Amino acid sequence: MYLERATIKINNVNWKLVGTVVAEKDSKLGYEFLRRLAQFFKAEQLEPMPPVFANVAKLLGDMGGEIQISLYCNLEAVEFLNKNVYIQRIFEYYLQLAKYADKYPDTSQYLSIYEPLIKVFERGGSFTIKPLALEIKNIAHFPLNDWYTRFVEKEPIEINDL
Q: Is the entire prediction scored with pTM above 0.90?
């Protein structure tokens, strides 16, 4: 159920539109991703790690191995995501967590961690993520040194209407 929904969400992105829309509101999506991820590390009492390596399913105990994006996503998504390994990882982590949540539904609450970044793509924007920075293309730059300390106590931003 969760994996099916996540797959549909990714496959419904208009991949030809990604990167063509520049919207100031997308900076809030980057902020909210980092805040939600920090909250996860705090709630689970785990040592924070760089967001690009934060495979939430694995951190929760999933030993099933990482997902191959090509097994779940359409050709357009695969071709786009294969161009950047770090962006691809975020989408793979999202799908892996959705698959894990099908077995352990109480973990489904953490799917919301990755959804702000997916929403950037759904809106036609783009992001890049690397070990040292998250950048919402032409909008915002979030240095990732001390990211956890800077975001763990931040107030949530309502992103449903973005």
A: yes
